[in-house]
Design brief:
TIM Barrel, alpha/beta, disordered C terminus, binds S-adenosyl-L-homocysteine, two-stranded parallel ribbon, binds iron/sulfur cluster, 10-stranded mixed β-sheet, single chain, 14 strands, DNA polymerase, domain 1
Amino acid sequence: MGEPTMRNVASLDAAGIETLIADLGEPGYRARQLTSWLYGRTAPSFDAMTDLPARLRARLADEWTLTLPSATDIRHSSDGTRKYLWQLADGVLVESVGIPSDGRLTVCFSTQAGCVMGCTFCATGRGGFVRNLLPGEIVWQVALVGSDFGHRVTNAVAMGQGEPFNNYEATLGALRLMNLPDGLGIGARHLTVSTCGVVPGIDRFAREQEQFTLAVSLHSAVQETRDGIMPGARRWPLPRLRQALIHYGDSTGRRPTLEFAVIAGRNDSPQEISALIAFARGWMCHINLIPVNPVEGSGAERPDPARVAEIAGLLQAAGIETSVRIERGTDIEAACGQLTQKHRAQDD
Ligand code: SAH
Ligand code: SF4
């Protein structure tokens, strides 16, 4: 028999960390200390965890690997937004974005490297799928962006690369670590998951105890249009999605956001807007209009700002709560849908 295989500490969620500590015969509070070192303080090694006994640090280092993501590139936008390209332990690359505003710091993080859903307007979808991220790899992105800004992260959104509900366990494990006081201490309501409409994931999310926030990428309430631009979401037709969202609102008392990226000539016609009103009427939701961000080769064109304002007016007149997303970081391709694996390497 050879050496036991080393395991990656980032694969553990909060319960996994507790089990690990218990298996080593250590008292329960050591789990909180370890969580705090890993995510609250982003310790680079077990050896750096100075208030853990030397014997425990040595055992951990014998059996577990700890490799922080390394920032291979950081781009700064003129509006203060920063985009990060992280290299993970196995060399895989993912991106996150830090968005400061009025004393808040929001981090947009990835849950997968790449994505299988293939949305035509999204740079991630156009690049294919690489792998799921581990809970720790998700939390580290958020923690490290906070350290780079030297500011507490107040909000975190799963709107980077990947479909969070295609990596449900790790995403929820990461949200809980972000929520824990010994982790990042971010309030559950300030932790948002965005899904392209994976109905079983929405049903499961509705049963979670924490008050996490849900956003759904709708982008069209006309089945044919939606099927065309979001091929991976075809499995869950619009009436089924609507039903799942109504059920989510009823069982949690929380209002999901419907994200609608307005694409000129594609989903901005009067028929599209009528279908959107019919979809959103009569239940608790909020619509967020996003003028589509340019992605090379996608053919998705930005609408005239006046048309976006007009659509917002029509929705509000129909009694639907609506906002228009303020664009951040477009100059560094850090805006929604502009995240890829490539980054600077593209330009080299
Ligand atoms: N996979 C999840 C979360 C990541 S995408 C999802 O699809 O919801 C985060 C958000 O950016 C989604 O609403 C997505 O539809 C949107 N998005 C993708 N490409 C975009 C683009 N080019 N312009 C504007 N929003 C885009
Ligand atoms: Fe995946 Fe979301 Fe991009 Fe669609 S929009 S390809 S679901 S990351």
